[in-house]
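Annotated sample (chain length 96).
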Amino acid sequence: MLSGKVVARFVIGRNGKVSNAAIDRSSTIPDSRVAECVVSAFYDIEFPEPDGGIVTVVYPIMLSPGYAWRYGHEAKLPRSTPGRIRDRSRRGIKAD
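Output written by the structure step:
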């Protein structure tokens, strides 16, 4: 059962792209590979260009088995995201 908190610390550059992403010390997820995977996904998000320079963000993500795992239903992902997700195929990364 996968549960815990992944805290991502990332920097949004002047161009709106994430220039640095790391796992914050306050993360509680027991599997570091999961935390690394979650945090690496922030490099694929583009934000609007920030006013006044770069922005550092600390963003907690809670993971738990939830309703879908307990009752065998297919999970539905929300339609909105904090930014626009770039096409991974342009960077040679294959989607699963």
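Annotation: The chain has one domain: 4-83.
Annotation: Residues 4-83 form a domain with the TolA/TonB C-terminal domain fold (CATH 3.30.2420).
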